[in-house]
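Hi both,

Apologies for the delay on this - the queue was longer than expected. I finally got the adenosine-5'-triphosphate-bound model through. Below you'll find the protein sequence and the ligand SMILES exactly as submitted, and right after that the structure tokens for the full complex including the ligand.
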Amino acid sequence: MPQYQAGQWNADAIFRRAMDTFFDRLAGVCEGAVAIDRRGRIVYVHDRYLPTLGLTRVDQALGRDIEEVIPNSLMRRVVETGEPILLDILELGGQHLVVTRMPIEDEAGAVIGAIGLVLDRVDHLNPLLAKFVQLEHALRDARRQLFEQRRPRHTFDDYIGSCPAILETKRLAMRAARQGVTVLLHGETGTGKELLAQAIHEHSTRSGRPFVSVNVAAIPDTLVEAEFFGVAAGAYTGADRKGREGKLKIADGGTLFLDEIGEMPIHLQAKLLRALQEQEVEPIGSNKVTKVDVRVIAATNSDLARAVERGAFRSDLYYRLNVMHIALPPLRDCLADLPAICDKQLDDIAARGGILRARMTPSAIAELARYRWPGNVRELRNVLERAVILSDTGVLTKADFAVILPQPQAAGRRGIEPAFDRLRTYAEAEAEFELRTLEDALAATGGQADEAARLLELSRATFYKKLARLRQSRK
Ligand SMILES: Nc1ncnc2c1ncn2[C@@H]1O[C@H](COP(=O)(O)OP(=O)(O)OP(=O)(O)O)[C@@H](O)[C@H]1O
Ligand SMILES: [Mg+2]
């Protein structure tokens, strides 16, 4: 490698200028330093940097293009733009380096080169980065909670419909709000259980206090107890060292919405019952009980009475929750309310998307009325959203929905046509049927696996497991 011949001012002037300003102070504490001239050629390397660059002598780098030595270097960009890159992570030979890059200017302010400093290796910073990621997560959780708390809650006006079943449901819910009794909401997925629970809370004397929603099905069995009752300080080592409040405590003075209560692990049902009866909680690892004042609204889409018969749900807890039983009708039983419900959803979709409010033709409504809506209003909402996205005109017609809705005729045909050129084994037919059931549910919920699992009354874990296995075996 020929020795680089510095021009009259190039190498020297650049280096001196850097020394004059900041370089001498920084270079000493840095893991590496490199400087280039205006044409991107290396004019200086600190010898501490050499091992990282895979070099043994400074002269092996001098005069070479910066990218030859540091392939991902952005030094040339700094020279070209005159803008520093104050903090960046540079990947070099499998290592991650924290670097800073600054232009070097002559007395007249013209860029004559750039200097790059390696401040540290990221692996030294790992504990710091881990902490950063952890804080970022905590912040996100806090923001989400804040958002949930501030979001205007549903009121009874949001529960649309005037068919007898809906009016009866609304009447009971309003009474529940006044009386403050424990309520069990029972309805298929997407029928508005969460909506009504919020409305009941809003119209009760507790409306100024928290509405805390816990989806029992979404919590792993092993964490349910901690989630509900909290953890005393010092009960575990590690993250929970400081202890954590349970949802019962957080809902103190307000309403606790126990969604998917049927999924409550049986061994914790007695503890929950005791907490509700005594209005006391005992956090894990604590031997003290704390008083709470919580109103409970529970929801289920499965038949809890049957679960009690099967022994999957404790009868005493069932009776404690079922003080007022409110059934929410499925959408297919309220088809007369379809236009009003669609209106409300289209208003919502337009407001959220900041788009023009779509309209529907009467034949479009008629087309929707022919469908069974296993996912109820939530499914309707998904279908309308898709139709709005796909529509060019903003007027939704029957044809717009024909392409979105699963076609019942097609499903029927599948059943009678000899679609297979050989007789399948029983196991194959069964797998085919299972997979189709799962995929139909996915289609009905717009691809939302959680909802699809609920529709089929499967646990989420079972749903995913079956889906993965069946899809795999189809390949
Ligand atoms: N009668 C209704 N009028 C207006 N909107 C409704 C009605 N029923 C449900 N919705 C809307 O449908 C969506 C689903 O409702 P919600 O989440 O309350 O259902 P859910 O019964 O809790 O379902 P899941 O059992 O799947 O949790 C929400 O956007 C809700 O606002
Ligand atoms: Mg719900």
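Main takeaway for now: Residues 409-474 form a domain with the Arc Repressor Mutant, subunit A fold (CATH 1.10.10).

I'll put the files on the shared drive as well.

H.
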